[in-house]
Amino acid sequence: MLSGVTGHAGVAPSVLDAVGDTPMVRLHRVVPAGAADVLVKLEGANPTGSYKDRMATAIVAGARARGELRPGRRVVEFTGGSTGSSLAFVCAVLGHPLSVVSSDAFSPEKLRTMRAFGADLTVVPSREGRITPDLFVRMRAEVDRIVAEHDAFWTDQFHNADALVGYAELGREILAQAPAVDVFCAAVGTGGMLAGVAGVLHGAGPTRVVALEPASSPTLTAGRGGAHRVEGTATGIVPPLLVPSAFDDARALDEDGARELARRLAREEGLFVGTSSALNIAGALELAGEVGPGGTVVTVAVDTGLKYLAGDLFDG
Predict the structure, then answer these.
(1) Which of 61, 207, 210, 271 has a CA that sits 20 to 30 A from residue 258's CA?
(2) CB atoms within 10 A of CB 202
(3) What is the dihedral of CA 172, 178, 182, 184, to 10 degrees?
(4) Paired residues of 39 in beta bridges
(5) pLDDT tens string 89-109
(6) Cβ–Cβ under 8 Å, residues 257 and 281
(7) What Rg do the C-alpha atoms of the chain give, in angstroms?
């Protein structure tokens, strides 16, 4: 518990204690005949509507426990959006000023959420709204500037192993809700979620873990990055947290197909998600067809479609 506050039974002592314990649902109409069950963990139920709340609370808790993040010290990170919103939420509760470096390549809703929680935001221009490997290089340069000018604590989400602590709890929740998991799949951004969940699932049994990425930026499957529009994924590198033992194989999926699936999920399943979540579910549906009846494939809806309404995802 980060808040250090106690409360009444059934009442969370702090909004930070409301992170986790998210629901899981079974899909029906989009699952092909003869396929395994497809279960989706709904991380939009977290306080900021994102699985990144788990990572942010774990990273801040770890840094505070070690004395690296003293009370009132500024925090900084570069992010495609959800990490910034989650860090802004945690820092608002705990009284840490936050500087976020992001870009106009990411949804306006995410940028506005960071500001709503009180973060100082630096927006690095993209090239025609595309997420490209060089964009992250330019964003990182801004982080270095802020660290030097403000003695800020850089959370370093791509290397920070504290993230695995937060995502391991996600893995334990999955096992409690679906004790027999044949396949778990998820797209890779920092790699922390896939690695943290995989550590738990691999320790519990023979679960196959599959890393997903957009085919437009096939770093894991083809060794090259590229421009794409799947926020929170495919930064053009193999992230350090994603060690080879964390996943069994990887596959690339069509980005346009995922965007169409996002619209189908809303209209046919009542599941309102963004492109990265739809990519996760597209991978799960493909794998479910391979596993066949009687099996179980699990993936994660990392946030909600509410974060993507300003774009064109739900047009048409």
Answers:
(1) 207
(2) 18
(3) -50
(4) 26, 298
(5) 999 999 999 999 999 988 888
(6) no
(7) 19
CB 49 within 8 A of CB 116: no
Note whether 294 and 52 are within 8 A (CB): no
Q: Extract the tokens encoding 274.
A: 């963004």
- Can you state the percent helix, strand and coil of the chain, rounding each to 5? 40, 15, 40
Write out the two tokens for 290. 């391979």
- C-alpha closest to that of 188 among 250, 244, 245, 102: 250
For residue 301, report the phi and psi dihedrals to the nearest 5 degrees.
-90, 105
Angle between helix axes 52-66 and 162-177 (nearest 10 degrees) is: 130
DSSP string, 253-275: E-HHHHHHHHHHIIIII-----H
- Is the distance from CB of 107 to CB of 311 less than 8 angstroms? yes
The CA distance from 236 to 193, in Å, is: 17
Strand segments (E) across 85-176: 98-103, 120-124, 153-154
* 69 pLDDT higher than 90: yes
**β-bridge pairing 37-42 and 120-124:** unpaired
